[in-house]
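Dear support,

We are seeing what looks like truncated structure output for some complexes. This example has two components. We would appreciate it if you could run it in full and send us the complete token output so we can diff it against ours.
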Amino acid sequence: MLMGKRDEVNGRPWVTWLLLALLIFLLLCLPLFIRGTYYRHIVIFTLMYVVLAQAWNLIGGYAGQIALGNMVFFAIGAYTSTILTIQFDLSPWLGMWVGGGLAVLVSLGLGLAVLKLEGHYFAMSTIAFGEILRTVFSNWRFVGGAQGISLPLHSPSLYYMQWANKVPYYYIILTMAVLVTVLVFLLDRSRFGFYTKAIKLDDVAARNRGINAFKLKLLAFALNAFITAMVGSFYAQYILYISPSSVLLLVTSILLAVIPIVGGVGTVLGPILGAVFIFPLTEFLRAMFGGLAMGVNYIMFGAAAIFVIMVEPLGFVAMLSCIKRWFRRLMEEKGGVEVEGAEG
Amino acid sequence: MKALKVDNLSKHFGGVYALNNVTLHVDEGELVGLLGPNGSGKTTLFNCVAGFYKPDGGQVYLGEREITGWKMERICERGLYRTFQLPRVFPELTLLQNVLLSQPHWGESLLEVMFKRSSHSLVERAGELIDFVGLSHMINEPAGSLSGGQQKLLELAAALMKDPEVILLDEPTGGVNPTLINDIKKMLLDLNASGKTFFVIEHNMDVIMDIGQRLYVLDYGNIIAEGSPEEIRNNDRVLEAYFGS
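Here is the complete output from our reference environment:
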């Protein structure tokens, strides 16, 4: 749509495509280089947070609605596919779509009720909803109560999405990350991208242009719910145990917002950079300092996140473009010197 | 043929009547001015007409259709566009995107919004309008880099993008330098000559006396005078409202 800008960005399109191809190739080969189970686990979780952060980015980054209850949708996905597998022997491959659909319905219901609220009030109501659901799930016998549910073990099988080693899980979550990133990229480039940005900047002025802001917010919320629920099902299959205290934690809901904020909200790249930085960091801090005293790792994580936002409120993406500009200027200066030399 | 008709419109905030049985109309192809001292209810009238406030009484008609109490996005899509006293452009979006936001949204499906860009013809039209208001050299710059006066021009381009039946302008020359005021005056006259209908709030007497074909004067929520610029200039009640006496 923006001719001038596109030309500028893709001044050398083949470089971009080459880098992208190289990156995908490296990601496909990654299990060859990373062999330790623990490190593979970290890579899988990082990718999981990439997908979750991309989903949050749609409602929080683009539509500008700070949702702090995303674990609700994650839990809906996890519980739905798990219960369907246990009760009806349904493959999680299908169960995750059912979970996604259910999450969309819940998000529409919740959205109709609270998306009209502004700013903090919306955030508060999503927190409240998450906490209510956690209490309900902790006391609901059918979903295993506070003890949660363990998935029955099967011998490695595609049907039950269970394997003895982590490589298949890696490829599943990698596929999800790539697909969701492509989706967000397409949305960003289409009308959705600048309509939602307009809504985020000035809701009333956007409506004054005839844009149905409420409908678009609902759309973003539902997409976010669907993707988050799909990841929830994946998590259940990967960990094989779910409980309210693992999939309905407020802390995790907040983390899902912090990752894209630190990475750069409302951009395609932001959630990726955020997740790649933050998840390994939290894991490292937990491993190194978790035993020191209760919550020390959380305090350090919070300090790191605040530091990044203080240095650059728009996150890593803004830092990156700053570095790019600086680099380009450096190149131009060097080029200029050469031209002068040639003239002399 | 009336493009806009307001019948006995009332709006009160607590015990204060901001609008008291206001009746007025704008004919198709007319450029009508709305005058009045500060606090007389001009912007409140716009807000009630364009769906920002729900009026407490009375009706608003756009052409033959009653639009009283409709939501602002619906009113906008049906052909009534209003601009703001302080321009409300989207600073982080480019000029082109700012104007494209006004593309028709009626019947625009969610899938289209999600996966399609604005059509080529719409982008072209937006470009022409930005050119018309003299900002084409900045078309891909963020709107935040514009001056206040330029933002008014951008809002005008965005209004035209909608091709509405009536355009409500809230102080189109407020806070704009004299040279630009002349440009805006000329643009409005040209657009009006080509058939566009305007209803304009304007504090600058020189401007509105020059371009308005018919004027209404509002004071304390009541219409106190109506007529040609010449008539208004010599109306005692208007002079009293403005200067006391």
